[in-house]
Amino acid sequence: MERKIRPWINKKIIEYIGEPEPTLVDFICSKVLAGSAPQGVLDDVQMVLDEEAEIFVVKMWRLLIYETEAKKLGLGK
């Protein structure tokens, strides 16, 4: 999470909002770590990211799936 996911989330939030938003990044990371469903994360970030929210959540979920599978296979060490 800290090595790959958090930096990616931070970078995307800066792209969408135009400035770092550590509180939002922490919130999204906590939702992911708590095992929230994609729709729950989408509902939470919708008002901040507006029309980019769905794209953000889809891309983030793809990254999460990739990283989870890569870890299972022992890749990326």
From TrEMBL:
Keyword ATP-binding applies: no
InterPro entries associated with the record: PWI_dom (IPR002483), PWI_dom_sf (IPR036483), RBM25 (IPR052768)
Domain PWI: 1-77
Gene Ontology cellular component annotations, sorted alphabetically: spliceosomal complex
Recorded name of the encoding gene: LOC103522935
Keywords: mRNA processing
Entry GO MF terms: mRNA binding
Superkingdom assignment: Eukaryota
Protein name: RNA-binding protein 25-like
Cited PROSITE patterns: PWI
Keyword Protease in record: no
GO biological process, one term: mRNA processing
Pfam family, one: PWI
